[in-house]
Amino acid sequence: MHEMIKGSNVSLAALSENIDSVIVSLSWGSSTGEGDADVSVLLLNGNGKVRSDADFHFYNNPVAADGSVQLLGKTPTADGNEDRISFDLTAVSAEIDRIVLAASRYEGARFGELEGVKLALADGGGEELLRFAIDDADAVSAIIFGELYRRAEDWKFRAVGQGYDAGLAGLATDFGVDIDDDAAAEETPDGTAGDAQADATAPVRPDEPGLQEALGAVPSPRQPEGEGRQTLPGNPAARPRTAKKKVTLPKAARKTLAENESWRDARLFPASALKSDRERETRATSVLLSVMAQVPEFGRRLTAAFGAPAGRMETFTEVTLPHGDTPRRPDGVIRVARAGKLWTALVETKTNGSALKADQVQAYMDIAARRGYEAVITLSNDVALEGSPLVEVKIDGRRKHRVALWHLSWAEVAHQAQMLIRHEGVGNAAHAWLLQELLHYLRHENSGCHGFQNMGPAWVPVRNGIDDETLCQGDPRALEVVENWERLIRQVCLRLGGELGRKVLPDHRAKRGIDPKVLRARLADQLCLDGRLQSSVRIEQTPGVLTVSADLRTGKLRTSIEIPAPEQGYPLSWAKRLVRRLAEAPADLHIETLVDGEKGGPRGTLERLRPEPADLLPKEAGTQITGFRLSLLKSMGSTRGNAESGFIRSVDDAVNRFYTGVAVHLDGVPRAPSKAESTAG
User: Fold this and answer.
1) DSSP letters of 372-428?
2) Which of 15, 14, 1, 18 minimizes the C-alpha distance to 372?
3) Where are any strands of DSSP class E within 137-280?
4) Least packed by Cβ within 10 Å: which of 359, 377, 497, 501?
5) Can you give the pLDDT at residue 598?
6) pTM of the complete model
């Protein structure tokens, strides 16, 4: 991989033979995991200007008409976001000389507040070709990360790293984008708008008025519907571009017309008659691939991460492909057509806990390489871990064509469907209904698509070894349990994130730069010593980090969160306000006062503290309160699988109970959906 420095350039053809399409990733993070920005792309002609405002691609104009640019959206990372952009360089108009890659912050935020600001570029096979880290991001609200530019027939990349004090508006104006003077004022260097029009420019988000009006996003609330517009060069009377209406499921379930509860709704994808694993795999593959083809938003969401272009998608099942003396039949094939080219992926599916077979996957990788296909996608209940592929395959280095191997868990499929139909919306009601039917199928007990649901054969021996103190450091069974614990936590994050419509991620802030395998080995040794599994989960818009701990010696699960003490006010007021906000929290909630020094502060259950919040205050005069720790304890299930008393179910329930019973009552935390809302439709 080629490391870039500011001002350097490189020919893409010198790095890879597969550069007809590339994916650029702009990423950043923060110590809180909440820093964010918006990407934008400008297509410039020989004069260094856009040909028209249609050459400016941002959150409300994400796709170029010729397919050359596609903003793929944000992908959460451990401590921030990665925003990805797909470019079909063969479709870029001959009039375009340069493609500028930029990002901007909003509401007065600055890039200097972020960490790990960088750009990466990958070829059509998903192989990362270059990386450019911007280490000197300062008090600027917009940055040009880099640019793709032509030299004869060759595409090159230049690392720029240039900041803009004037934000997105200043950057866009410099390259010829026409912004209505009456819709947006110039941002001042401190990130706020001028006095006359501060209300029009402060936010730069697609769901708020202001600068977005000037960029043709939505009508201004100060004007009648349809009058907010973007002034196009040479055509001041151009028709306004408005945001498309999105369809989501209703918040509450409709009243049923059934005579009694024994009546069951007719379903598009029935699952009750499935009897064998083969039938489950065949049905699940066909259901998923058909919905992907019919709901473009959903199909695109799943394949964009695998390097697929934006285009017409067709899906197939039970395709026979030659392979030596024995033809192979992958479970499915995905093909995407864009600009006269085809992107193809073979799909191998497993359900009901069946493991992927290395020889099958290897055969499909070999077939894909010989036939010039781009990817092999495996799909199962298992969850892939960072740095640890589910199956090991051999890559023939003599072949010029590279095939990417990707994995999806059924939990991830369900998460993406739920995010679309419950929170973000799809193009029409039919698409929402199809996704709803897909979700119902995946959740049916007979579908076999329930996600990670077994702690593995090492689970019982490890628990027994901890009980009788015979488990030794270095035991490979402890490492297996740690890996499955990590899979479980990742799946818990997907489920809770789908319910809330927000980012829920395992928190790895303290572990950056450590090889994941080395870290898991350390955690396995720690498990042997103290018999405890522990992970941290960061939930967007929630103060503090949720900690999940499983003590295998006592059989107890602990979910907790630490919230900082307010910066102003008196300790007694803090205690009273906290207890008052937790009025509807479970009575068995443990509250502990955090103080400076090694000695712990006062603690008690919410039931005992309600009449006497002052019991949370330290008795020693001058003791500094730093915050409060809120904890719930729960007995953990003992079985390996997904039975009601199972360990996996108990962890999932513990996290959900803590969020809905405790976290939602804290300052600034949006309300979690009710049970009726989460099952609406």
Assistant:
1) T--EEEEEESS--BTTB-SS-----TT-SS--EEEEEEHHHHHHHHHHIIIII-BSS
2) 18
3) 142-151, 154-164
4) 359
5) 67
6) 0.66
